[in-house]
Structures are given as C-alpha cells and as structure tokens.
C-alpha cells in the first residue's frame, strides 16, 4: 500500500523534475558524492566587501578543525557585530564548511554579521560525539576571540541546515550543560534531530527516490552512531533524545511539509514550548528537504529565507527573549 504524502509545491515540483534523485546511500555512492567540488565561495563574495580569514583550532584529540571567518570589509552598523556560527548540512557524512554558505552570507550583508563556518569531521570516519565536539571547539574559539573578531559575545547565533541543524541543536544543549559559551539564539533549518527515524513523516518518504529519504537518513545515522546501541546514544548527537529542553536560547525551526524531518522538527518545537522556552516554528507547505538551498529562486524558498531573516532581525535587535514564569 502506498503511503499518502503531502503534495509538492507546484513550482518546486517543476524544478525538481530535472534533478537526479536517489532512494538509498551506500559507501560506494558516498565515495562518489564526496568527489564533487566544494562550493566556489569566492563567487558569492562581492570584491572588496568581505574580509576572509582561515583559522585552525584543535580538538581535544589534537585533530585540526578548520574554520573560515567572513566579516564585512565596511559596515554601516555601529558597535560590535553579531556573529552567526554556521554548521553545514550533508547527512553528517558529506559536505564541507562552504556547503549552503550563501544562507548565512545573506546575514553578513543584511546585519553586518561576522559569519564563522566550521569543518567538523565527518562520519563514518568520525563517530559519536566527535562531530558536535568539533563544533563546540569552534564555538569556544569564537567566544575567546570575540574582541579580536569585533563581535558582541552576547549576540552569537548558532545556525545550521539539515545535519548542521542537528549539530547546532546538539551544540546548544552541550553549551547549556557546560555553562558556556553563551548562545543568544539557535536557528535549525530542516534539522536532523532524531536517530530513531520512526516518525510518520520518515515513513512517508521511504521506498522511492527523493532528495533525502528515510533510507538515506538511516545510512547517515548508522555512520555517525557506529557501534553505539540505542540506549547509549547521547542527546548531544541525537537531540530529540534530550529529556530536558529548558533554559535553551530562543529558537527558530523550520521544515517542509513534504520531507522526512517534518515531524521531528514540530515535536522538538512543541517540547521547547512545553519546557517554558521560546521557539518559532514553520512548516512550509509543499517544501521538500533542502528546497530553499537547492532552489532559492522559487517563490516558496524566497518566502522561507525572508522569514528567517525577519526572525533574526528581531532577535538581534531585542536581545535575549525573557522567560515568562
């Protein structure tokens, strides 16, 4: 029996018709996908408007973690700048720090934000908490070098898409539980939050080719979890497992209605509200996974990106959202 699915947005459906789709990932396919070139980031930077700096920080085990720092060459915004710390997507098994970088670079232009993006290690070569700990090392570096970077340490926003959204959520839990560094807000774009892969939406997008299917999702999680049994999986890796979602910074979450991650996103938002936290959640009708990154020119994509930017504008102008008891 075929599982009913929400219809795709007509404009996105037309664009998707020309894209080669898969139903599964294998080690062999992953090796092929990793051979594709990185995003040519220099083409996104208008000459003379952005300063770029490359930094390497060290993980606890001594591994090198590259960071790229993008800052406005000239800013019309007074005072210390906000910072957006970006975690890229790619199912935790592919991509690099320049993947989907056009998204946070819009905020550099809009808000004069300093954008820092991290090359966390990928699964299956790295497993367990290694990926989120790499992201944590980058966050610590940003906090320790805030004055040098010209950023306001009270306006550091962590953000990510897909796997990067899941890592941003795990990083925020980790920073909360360790008591530092401070995070002003988290933006989780179509985030990969739940290794159990058991929601209604995950089953809706199984068995047929797609941008990101239940089978592909299972492959990504198997790679990052390695030999961990279900009861051993940390919430920092699979944030949906977190029993306590209190005391988190204000949060933005979104997903498409036609994607695997839809239900884990809406559940995570609901649990933040239940814990007394502040969250804004959007489900974009007819959007598939990563629609706005793949086809930013589509009307639905443009609307999603405008909405995120408007939320970020409110967060950066008002400061932390007060908790209401």
Describe this structure as you would to a colleague.
It is a single chain. The longest helix has 20 residues, at 299-318. Helix content is 35%, strand content 18%. It has one domain (51-317): Alpha/Beta hydrolase fold, catalytic domain (Rossmann fold), CATH 3.40.50.1820. Strands 1-2-4-3-5-6-7-8 form an 8-stranded mixed sheet, with helices on both faces. It has helices at residues 10-16, 27-33, 102-111, 130-144, 146-149, 163-178, 200-204, 214-225, 262-274, 291-294, 299-318, and strands spanning 50-58, 64-72, 81-87, 114-118, 151-161, 185-189, 250-256, 279-284. β5, α6 and β6 form a beta-alpha-beta unit. It is built from 11 helices and 8 strands. With 325 residues, it is of the alpha/beta class.
Relevant terms:
eight-stranded mixed β-sheet, 325 residues, alpha/beta, 35% helix, 11 helices, Rossmann fold
Write the layout of secondary structure elements.
Blueprint: H1 10-16, H2 27-33, E1 50-58, E2 64-72, E3 81-87, H3 102-111, E4 114-118, H4 130-144, H5 146-149, E5 151-161, H6 163-178, E6 185-189, H7 200-204, H8 214-225, E7 250-256, H9 262-274, E8 279-284, H10 291-294, H11 299-318
Parallel strand pairs: 3-4, 3-5, 5-6, 6-7, 7-8
Antiparallel strand pairs: 1-2, 2-4
Helix pairs in contact: 4-6
What does this entry show, briefly?
The chain is α/β, with parallel strands linked by helices and 325 residues long. 35% of the residues lie in helices and 18% in strands.
């Amino acid at each position: 029996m075929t599982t009913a699915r929400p219809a795709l947005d007509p404009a996105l459906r037309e664009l998707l018709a020309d894209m080669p789709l898969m139903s599964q990932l294998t080690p062999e396919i992953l090796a092929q996908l990793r051979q594709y070139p990185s995003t040519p980031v220099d083409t996104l930077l208008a000459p003379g408007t952005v300063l770029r700096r490359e930094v390497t920080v060290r993980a606890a085990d001594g591994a090198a973690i590259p960071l790229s720092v993008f800052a406005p060459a000239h800013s019309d915004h007074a005072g210390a700048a906000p910072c957006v710390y970006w975690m890229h997507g790619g199912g935790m098994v592919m991509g690099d720090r320049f993947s989907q970088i056009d998204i946070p670079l819009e905020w550099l232009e809009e808000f004069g934000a300093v954008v820092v993006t991290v090359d966390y290690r990928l699964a299956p070569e790295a497993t367990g908490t290694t990926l989120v700990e790499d992201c944590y090392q980058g966050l610590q570096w940003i906090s320790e070098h805030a004055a040098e970077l010209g950023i306001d340490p009270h306006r550091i926003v962590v953000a990510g898409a897909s796997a990067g959204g899941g890592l941003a959520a795990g990083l925020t839990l980790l920073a909360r539980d360790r008591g530092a560094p401070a995070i002003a807000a988290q933006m989780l774009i179509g985030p990969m939050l739940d290794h159990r892969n058991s929601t209604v939406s995950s089953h809706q997008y199984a068995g047929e080719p797609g941008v990101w299917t239940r089978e592909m999702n299972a492959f990504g999680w198997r790679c990052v979890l390695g030999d961990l049994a279900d009861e051993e999986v940390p919430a920092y890796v699979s944030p949906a497992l977190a029993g306590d979602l209190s005391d988190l910074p204000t949060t933005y979450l979104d997903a498409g209605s036609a994607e695997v991650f839809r239900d884990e996103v809406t559940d995570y938002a609901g649990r933040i509200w239940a814990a007394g936290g502040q969250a804004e959640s959007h489900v974009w009708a007819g959007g598939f996974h990563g629609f706005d990154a793949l086809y930013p020119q589509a009307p639905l994509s443009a609307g999603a990106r405008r909405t995120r930017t408007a939320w970020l504008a409110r967060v950066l102008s008002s400061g932390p959202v007060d908790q209401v008891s």
